[in-house]
UniProtKB/TrEMBL annotation:
Cofactor dependency: NAD(+)
Pfam family, one: AdoHcyase
Record EC number: 3.13.2.1
Taxonomic superkingdom: Bacteria
Major enzyme class: hydrolase
Gene for this chain: ahcY
Any one GO biological process: S-adenosylmethionine cycle
Name by which UniProt lists this protein: Adenosylhomocysteinase
Native source species: Ruminiclostridium hungatei (Clostridium hungatei)
Length: 415
């Protein structure tokens, strides 16, 4: 049986969404032209497990246009858009995903997508890699390698590499300059606020916004909160990042202190138990909590559920929890990535860069996998630079070039 989706009658709506992002992803459009002419993925089986919304659909189509045999699944039970999945199926791709899948369905969909015996995997957070190293080991001989999209996924791959258990090479797409400097910072910075604002429809100006984690994502979220007129508080565990936040003009304090004054809390650490029962009990009535980091364990939803004396849906994607002191705490999108579970994720122009890195890194893997070892490798600098150049070209921005004399000067020590 091919494709498991909710409703094929949504295909036209999905195709419209895919066409809109295509028109706003100029780098992928130029790769489309190239892949159509050169078919670099001819005869190659590619499995894509990334948040299944329109930009991911365009990436999957790109592999198919490049000659690949592609199967697609999601990377989070709440981020799949059923119309987009239908649009892809109508365009002839095989898709296994639907919105709001149970844990079992989500895993079944990943397994079905893997049933294609992939040669290349495009992973986002390590779900495919995990299955391939545990319950689907028999598929490893078919794998050439893959690419990982996000910070937490790369951390896990590095842990596997260190333990010597990684069985094929993986490109750490997240660690390319054209990924984290743009996607994590400006992409998360915008899309997290898009998710929060469209879900709550409340004002940000004048509020105390608490950002937990001042990494690349946290920097973007804090910067945009400031732009909206919020007072921003940062919590951190790393003294250097904390010092950076102070000099960027934010208040830095422990979460136990921030809990008492915050109006909106956003976790983006990749860690667990960042906001727990020791914080819930001090929060203001009406406090809004959400997460933008990898898993739904940054805000301890389990403890919130246990502490609550009453629970009530306040609005779509907002669950209210009443504490025994009578105060309500509101959790957005079940504590899952708020920008994707309650929004459309990063803007098209951002994913244009991230997915160009994915497509070009997959092509690189295809050519070079035999020489890479079972290692986590960086995106080659030529690809990173090429993506930046294509982005500048799409904006019509031209920059200067070093002269021979300047190059010499920069590489000398005597003058
Ligand atoms: P990063 O490593 O740059 O930053 C994480 C920061 O959190 C670090 O500064 C670290 O010191 C801090 N931190 C860790 N534990 C903490 C704790 N208990 N309390 C306070 N601070 C803590 O990572 P990043 O690129 O910013 O990514 C963060 C998370 O967001 C990852 O899980 C990543 O996979 C995810 N991510 C989400 C999106 C999205 O679209 N929502 C996009 C990119 C990355
Ligand atoms: N499996 C994880 C996924 C990590 S999410 C989970 O449980 O949800 C973080 C990644 O989502 C980021 O690295 C970013 O590149 C990606 N992302 C953000 N917006 C996106 C979008 N519109 N489409 C596809 N991926 C997106």
């Amino acid at each position: 049986m091919k494709s498991i989706i909710r409703d094929i009658s949504l295909a036209d709506k999905g195709k419209q969404k895919i066409e809109w992002v295509r028109r706003n992803m100029p780098i992928l459009r130029s790769l489309e032209e190239d892949f159509r002419a050169t078919a670099p993925f001819k005869g190659v089986r590619v499995v894509v497990s990334v948040h299944l919304e329109a930009k991911t659909a365009y990436l999957a189509k790109l592999f198919a246009i490049g000659g690949g045999e592609v199967s697609v699944t999601g990377s989070n039970p709440l981020s799949t858009q059923d119309d987009v999945a239908a649009g892809l199926v109508a365009d002839g791709l095989d898709v296994y995903a639907w919105y709001n899948s149970t844990k079992e369905e989500y895993e079944e969909h990943l397994n079905l997508a893997l049933g294609y015996k992939p040669n290349i995997i495009i992973d986002d957070g390590g779900d495919l890699v995990n299955l391939l190293h545990t319950t689907r080991k028999e598929l490893i001989p078919h794998i050439m390698g893959g690419c990982e999209e996000t910070t937490t996924g790369v951390l896990r791959l590095k842990a596997m590499e260190k333990e010597g258990v990684l069985k094929f090479p993986m490109v750490a797409v997240n660690n390319a300059n054209c990924k984290y400097l743009f996607d994590n910072r400006y992409g998360t910075g915008q899309s997290v606020w898009d998710g929060i604002n469209r879900t709550t429809n409340l004002i940000v100006a004048g509020k105390n916004v608490v950002v937990a984690g001042y990494g690349w994502c946290g920097k973007g979220i804090a910067m945009r909160a400031k732009g909206f007129g919020a007072d921003v508080i940062v919590t951190e565990i790393d003294p250097i990042k904390a010092a950076e936040a102070v000099m960027d003009g934010y208040k830095v304090m422990k979460m136990t202190e921030a809990a008492k004054v915050g109006d909106v809390f956003i976790t983006v650490t990749g860690c667990r138990d960042v906001i727990t029962q020791e914080h819930f009990k001090y929060m203001k009535d009406g406090a809004i909590l959400c997460n933008a980091g990898h898993f739904d364990v940054e805000v301890s939803v389990e403890q919130l559920e246990k502490l609550a004396v009453e629970k009530q849906e306040q609005r779509k994607n907002i669950m209210g929890y009443k504490m025994d002191n009578g105060r309500w705490i509101n959790l957005l999108a079940e504590g899952r990535l708020v920008n994707l579970a309650a929004g459309d994720g990063h803007p098209a122009e951002i994913m244009d860069m991230s997915f160009a890195l994915q497509a070009l890194s997959a092509k690189y893997m295809l050519k070079n996998f035999r020489n890479l070892g079972n290692k986590v490798i960086d995106v080659p600098a030529e690809i990173d630079i090429a993506v930046a150049e294509m982005k500048l070209k799409s904006w019509g921005v031209k920059i200067d070039k070093l002269s021979g004399e300047q190059k010499k000067y920069l590489n000398s020590w005597a003058e």
